[in-house]
């Protein structure tokens, strides 16, 4: 027995609204899914920006700032060293020098918070590496916008004791990103208005975040008076985490006055 035309129309009419409701539900969930996918892609792009693209731009900006600071100091020194027309002409080449350059380090006063006082060069990190240094180790004032921070109340470059520094290992240009790749004997040079201070890397150590004894005059030696010149660089470890600190220790090698020009260890560095 076959259905009548009216019966078929009746079944189609009943099925019609059901199919329409099903299509509407599928469209809603597909749009919602696309929104979630879009948000996920945007989140991934933001992470990529923060960890790679933004870091690359940040590092380039900090290196450019270091270059500008170095050039400014060089220009200021050249201007101060240039004789004025009223000054007595310089001695002839045959004249014997009356003074000899000193190699005793010139120790500058401690900078104010966020006050730029130096530029760091580490040839191991690349010929373009030249990061500004400033007083203090707060993120918003020194580490994020400037680069490398100097722990307050620790010695300045060239002084007896422990020059303590901090910088990011990831994000904001990550100045100490390659700290774990240092080799024994690598040069670490700090430039100031006075000249260049060369330190030589000795060893790495991993400590807990509260291990403030690495900042002592003789690192991790309580009550011991310093009789040497040290440099301690600290950063987070492992990368992207803060469960530990990586610490790089170096010892002072020499001071090069600005009048003598850049030290040979920076040959090839821009």
TrEMBL record:
It comes from the Bacteria. One of its GO terms (molecular function) is hydrolase activity. NCBIfam families: class_E_sortase (NF033747), sortase_fam (TIGR01076). Keywords: Hydrolase, Membrane, Transmembrane, Transmembrane helix. The active site is at 168 (proton donor/acceptor), 236 (acyl-thioester intermediate). CDD domains: Sortase_E (cd05830). This is Class E sortase. Residues 77-107 are annotated as: Disordered. The chain crosses the membrane at residues 28-52. It comes from Microbacterium protaetiae. The lineage of its organism: Bacteria, Bacillati, Actinomycetota, Actinomycetes, Micrococcales.
């Amino acid at each position: 027995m076959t259905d009548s035309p009216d019966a078929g129309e009746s079944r189609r009419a009943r099925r019609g609204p059901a199919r329409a409701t099903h299509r509407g539900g599928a469209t809603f969930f597909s749009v919602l899914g696309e929104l979630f996918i879009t948000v996920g892609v945007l989140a991934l792009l933001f992470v990529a920006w923060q960890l790679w693209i933004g870091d690359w731009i940040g590092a380039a900006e900090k290196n450019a700032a270091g270059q500008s600071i170095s050039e400014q100091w060089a220009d200021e020194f050249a201007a101060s060293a240039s004789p004025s027309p009223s000054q007595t002409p310089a001695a002839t080449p045959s004249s014997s020098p009356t003074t000899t350059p000193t190699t005793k380090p010139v120790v500058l006063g401690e900078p104010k918070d966020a006050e730029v006082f130096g530029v760091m060069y580490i040839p191991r990190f690349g010929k373009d590496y030249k990061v500004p240094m400033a007083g203090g180790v707060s993120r918003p004032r020194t580490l994020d916008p400037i680069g490398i921070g100097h722990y307050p109340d620790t010695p300045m470059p060239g002084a007896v004791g422990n020059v303590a520094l901090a910088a990011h290992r990831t994000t904001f240009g990550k100045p100490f990103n390659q700290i774990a790749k240092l080799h024994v004997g690598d040069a670490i040079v700090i430039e100031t208005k006075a000249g260049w201070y060369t330190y030589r890397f000795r060893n790495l150590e991993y400590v807990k975040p509260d291990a403030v004894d690495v900042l002592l005059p003789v690192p991790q030696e309580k009550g011991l008076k310093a009789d040497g010149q040290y440099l301690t660089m600290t950063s987070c470890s492992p990368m992207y985490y803060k469960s530990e600190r990586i610490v790089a220790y170096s010892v002072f090698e020499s001071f090069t006055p600005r009048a003598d020009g850049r030290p040979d260890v920076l040959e090839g560095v821009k």
